[in-house]
Design goal:
disordered N terminus, 2 domains, 410 residues, 6 helices, alpha+beta, Nuclear Transport Factor 2, Chain: A, five-stranded antiparallel sheet, 32% strand, single chain, 14% helix
Amino acid sequence: MAPYLFPPRMVTSEELTAAGRSVSASCRLALTLCVTGVLTFPCLSLAAWAAGQDTAAQPETPLETQLPPEEAVEEPAQLSAKQRNEIVAQVRAAVQRVDSPQPRAVAAALGIDLDVKGEEAAPRSSLEQLGDLDGDGVPEMALRWMSGVQPTPGSEPIARPLSAWTLFLLAWDGADWHATFLMDLADPITLQVETLLGRKFREVVALVQVSGGTAPYPVIFEFRDHMASMLWDSRADESRYQAFPRGQVEFRDLNGDGVCEMLVSGRADPGLLLFSKTGKRGFEARAVYTWHGKAYAPGKTEFSVNEDFTLYRFIAALHLHDFRSAYTLVEPRGFLNTREPSLELFRKQVEATWPEFLADNIFEAADSAESAADDYTFTLQQEGKLYVYQPAFSSDPEHLLTGLVRREEK
């Protein structure tokens, strides 16, 4: 996928202060987990394992046949600590029996295919080569392991085992394979290798795709001494990370200090004006995060300037009774239909004509497949009534409101 591009006209979070809304928004090899639908993100290209190697002797009974049968279900099972420990022990025992550095030997020991991606990889376990992370000539691999488990005691009985997914990192130390348990998987992920923190070790980044496959949450693991350990999980309670719908995550060293900033972009989710997750309406956001020793922390957030961005700022300002900020978003003469506009006249017109903007109301952008490109209609459901608003905007880059008409529909 091409790098994410932003319109030339952007507004920073600092510029939104007037509208009354603050936006909350050794090299290490980073394994980034993204939880989203089928979005993929730019990643460091990895050397493929040399083709044409001979397959070493393999265990007679693959692990896949020793575990409960795999069966696909809509929701993965929640593993108990005991169940997880049993799965980890079985996977480690299987790979430790392999005395060859060849990835195909490991795949055969696990009873799964090597480097099967996309639709072919689901719903079975899969083994993906990540590249040679430590320079020993043998690629490290990510194992997505699915096993059948029975529900925990006290749960309702079921006719067949549930599917439980776990993620491992497999690494060769010159004599044996090591399997590091990384995390349970409840959402789809994509993996990428990054050089993030400018130190001796490398990182693996897992992008966990949540919210129906649209919002990526990175999880970063450090790889050293043939093992992986978690550095930062954006999903943690203490994390200040904010994902955007239709999101993308990429890492760049913006200031040349050897440590990558994290760029998070996507569709803004402002709250007071709702946009369809699958529609055309809305405005874009981009946040830059910097590494602070133990976590990525948000810095400046920028927003693309368009008609929907003006609408959101207008609604947000009036929600806070900030008439002065809202007034800066209109073309006074056209909006008030007078040759002598004033802030006081604007305030009185809002209070008399659109008092619902001053209350705790949530508006919704109309966004159907039949909507014209220049249709910025939005609506409000209130006390059994449907209010429909049709705004008009100036043609200049500021997209100021030049008019607002409301009608009631039953």
